[in-house]
Structure formats: C-alpha cells, structure tokens
Amino acid sequence: MTSSTTPRAYDLWGVPFDGGSTLGRPGSRYAPARIRESLGWITQRIQGDEVYSLESNSVHVLRADMIDDRGNAELQEHDLEASLRNCSQVVSESLGRGRVPIVLGGDDSLLFPVARGMHDALGGRIGIIHFDAHLDLLDSNPHQGRFSQSSGMRRSLELDRIGPADCIQVASRHFNFPSSGAFKHDHGLAHITAREFQSLGPAEAARQILDHVSGADHLFLSFDIDAIDPAFAPGSGAHEPGGLTSGEALEVVRLLAPHCEALAITEVNPMVDLADATSTLAAYLLFHFAVFGSHGAVPQVSGDTAAVEAAP
After folding, report:
1. What's residue 194's pLDDT?
2. Per the confidence metrics, is the pTM higher than 0.90?
3. Which residues of the chain have pLDDT under 50?
C-alpha cells in the first residue's frame, strides 16, 4: 500500500458511459458534468493552495496541481468493450505519470476497467475495496452479457493479480442472485454488510477493512453511490434502503483515502436526483479522498476482524 512524504496529485477523468446499465435506471452518463459543477462549489474555498477543514480543525496545504481535470475518456457509445478499454487506458496513463486517477462514472460496469487499468500499470497484488449495495458477481446471462454493471467484481477477480483475499465488499445488503452468493462463498470473498457497518461505525469499519486487505500492494477504492441510503443519495441507478448515511460515507472515505491509489465513483444519476444532492455528495467524496489522501498511508495496527464475513 502507498506511503509518501510528497503530497500526491490526482487526475480527474470523466467516463460518461451508461451502456452497462442493464438493470436499474440509465442516466449516469450525465453525472461527470454535474459532479464537476458541484466540485466547483467546494474548490472555491481554496485560497493560495490552502483549504481549512472543520473536521480536522486545520489548514491543509495543497499542491497547485492537486486535481488536474483531464476531461472525459474517449468513448464509443455503442461499443461497450471498446469504451471499457479506453477507461482502462486512461487509468493506466495516470498511474504511469505517478498520479492517482479519480474516475467519475458512468455506471458500475466501470469497476472492471479501472481495476484492469491498475493491474496493467502496477506490479504486485491489487486489492479492491468495493462499496456497493450489490455484489456485482454475476458471470453472464442472456440479458446482461459479461460486462454489465452486475459483473464488474467478477471480471476483476479473473485478472491474474487480483484475488479474493485482497478484496472486500462493504455496505452490501438485501437480496442477490444465488449464483453470485455461491461464487462469493466458494471463493471466500469477505464482506461487511451495511447493517454491520452501522454497528461498527466508520473508524472501526475502516480499521477492519484495512486489516483485511493488508496483504495487497496497491488498493483501488470503488464506490457505487448506492452504498449510501437513498434518503441521502436519491440520484442513483437503484434504490436500496438501509444504506450508509452521507456522514458515514464521507468519514470512511477520509480514513481509507491515504491507502488507496485509485478511486471510482459510479451510478450517480442526475436524471432522478433531487436538487443535485447526490452529485454534490459525490463531489465531496472525491474532494475528501484527494485532501485527506494527499500524503499517503501511515502504518495501521491490526486487530480483531470479527465483523468481516468470509465463507470458509
């Protein structure tokens, strides 16, 4: 996992693609533009490369190029696999420049190409911290194919250096395909349900997450906005009640950010949002990730991981 004394810099990439939205509501193609607008509301408070955080009660010194908006990845809207390849390429490009990619989807079919872009650019074991109400472990079916929003984690785990032992799913809840449940249990893929997360609180949940993925050399934080309860994130591709609060999500992203070398925020859907509440929350998630992750990781203390559930 990453450790740095030099402040890290970030590349912001939009991937306005929802061609993998085979379930739920399409419309996440409009999210990158709306999240960027909301980000401007936050970044206007930067003065002379500094910003004051009320949570830490301190002034954070930022790089002048902390967030470089690289525009949108080139897409072929009617060619899902070509669009996913282009997403992988921009992620690899940013990592090759020594910068941390932040990808704004788009639907959650983008989980796989971001993971693949990391896998192509970096050596060693790649771990995924996957915030999502759903498992995304579907192999294939006639309606959705192999690369839809329901298959991103399954495809990622087929890459050579991404294994279940280095991955964890967080905020999952309710019901899913029996075949996905069987795959999860057969491969020992760990999870912390939304209910367990709420019982633990963000600090303890973050500690257990990091302890579980401590064997990975590099970490990817994948955040489907439906990990958050629809009361706080109404503009999502699917509504699953019982999710995280906005405050819990912001705090856990703050705690995980120093350890992660890529972030994807997916499934924000402005077409069903309420007064840009979800786009604004997504902008705050990415800004927390950038500000609080700018100096990389510090050593973590391992401990009991009783709430992390993995199949035997």
Report:
1. 98
2. yes
3. 3, 298-307, 311-312
Query: CA-CA distance, 243 to 266, in Å (whole number)?
Result: 16
- Predicted local distance difference test score (pLDDT) of residue 106: 87
Tokens of 203: 């600090």
- Using the Cα atoms of residue 262, residue 215, residue 127 and residue 196 in order, give the sign of their dihedral: negative
Give the start-end residues of each E strand in 106-259.
Answer: 126-131, 167-172, 190-193, 218-224
Question: What ranges in 97-138 are assigned the alpha helix state H?
Answer: 111-121
Neighbouring CB atoms inside 10 A of 95's CB total: 20
Structure tokens of 286? 């990415």
- Residue 258 tokens read as 């120093």
Q: How far apart are CA 290 and CA 230, in angstroms?
A: 25
The pLDDT assigned to 1 comes to 57
CB under 8 Å to 182, separation ≥6 — which residues?
none
Query: Is 157:164 a contact under the CB 8 Å cutoff?
Result: yes
Structural domains in the chain, sorted by start: 10-292 (3.40.800.10)
Q: How far is CA 139 from CA 54, 134, 192, in A?
A: 44, 14, 22
Residue-level pLDDT at 19: 77
With beta carbons less than 8 A apart as the criterion, state whether 266 and 233 touch. no
Q: Residue 106, by phi and psi: left (phi above 0), alpha (psi -120 to 50) or beta? A: left
What sign does the CA torsion over 60, 61, 64, 65 have?
negative
Residues in the chain: 312
Q: Which residues touch 213 (CB under 8 Å, ≥6 apart)?
A: 127, 129, 166, 167, 168, 219
